[in-house]
Write a structure and sequence with these properties.
This protein is mainly alpha-helical and 262 residues long. The chain has 13 helices and no strands. It is elongated, with a radius of gyration of 22 Å.
């Protein structure tokens, strides 16, 4: 049996980190070791996080991200205690590990997106952490590109998100905050389409007033649209869509739309 299959994980980590990066051959050896028994246990998950913190931002093999995301996801979702779900203890573990080096890198962000996409359920605290992490990553360069829209779509509509395929209030607030932050910038056109679709889903596909914008939703929309002191093109597109699709709008929102020239 080869050495990488038998030596303690701490020693294997030293070998992998000797040159400061993770290459394809090292990923292959780690995969063989970690999946030898078909289970990713806590020690192995800790090992993966330690490796990632040490090589974060380096020119690692793309296979490293794939292994990290796949293996850590398996650790938290394929366990017998809460199969397919993230329980409170797993949420605390993941958040603690990711925050350990005081940054969420692209590998860890890919993990979060994958978990929300695959999990049947996650705790509210975990959902908020994912949204906060995604917001920080998206706003790092001040614009939203096509790949970031894909990530946003995966997280908002993921089975492990707040409302599953729907959009809950926390997610809708998050999308408005993002839009205010990137308003007027050269965002990818898919951002406007996604924003309009998701917020429309939030107000028109709820159980309280399906197909309509009720007075509470109108008050919320007004607060959100006016929050940054301007009605931008993306918000105008949303309001035009609601005006065209909603079976009913309250007079208060109609008056605002008239003032905003919608």
């Amino acid at each position: 049996m080869s050495d990488h299959m038998t030596k303690p994980l701490k020693e294997l980590a030293k070998d992998v980190l000797a040159d400061g990066v993770v290459d394809a051959s090292e990923v292959k050896r780690m995969r063989e070791r970690l999946y030898a028994d078909g289970v990713i246990d806590r020690e192995e998950a800790d090992f993966l996080f330690a490796i990632n913190d040490a090589v974060s931002g380096k020119k690692n093999s793309p296979a490293w991200k794939k292994l990290f995301v796949e293996a850590v996801t398996s650790h938290v979702l394929d366990d017998p205690q809460s199969p397919g779900e993230i329980d409170d203890a797993e949420a605390r573990y993941l958040i603690g590990k990711i925050k350990a080096d005081k940054r969420v890198d692209d590998v860890e962000l890919a993990l979060l997106v994958n978990i929300v996409t695959r999990a049947k359920a996650t705790p509210k605290a975990f959902q908020k952490f994912v949204l906060d992490s995604l917001k920080a990553a998206v706003l790092e360069d001040g614009i939203i590109d096509a790949q970031e829209v894909k990530m946003l779509r995966a997280v908002i509509y993921g089975s492990g998100s707040g409302a599953g395929a729907g959009v809950d209030r926390q997610e809708a607030d998050f999308l408005f905050e993002l839009n205010d932050a990137v308003s007027g910038h050269e965002n990818h056109p898919s951002w406007k389409r996604f924003f309009v679709e998701a917020i429309s889903k939030h107000v028109l596909e709820d159980e309280a007033s399906p197909g309509e914008v009720d007075s509470r939703e109108a008050a919320w929309l007004t607060r959100k649209v006016e929050a940054d002191g301007t009605v931008d093109d993306t918000e105008r597109a949303l309001l035009r869509s609601l005006k065209a699709k909603a079976k009913a709008l309250p007079d208060s929102l109609k008056a605002k739309m008239a003032r905003w020239k919608i």
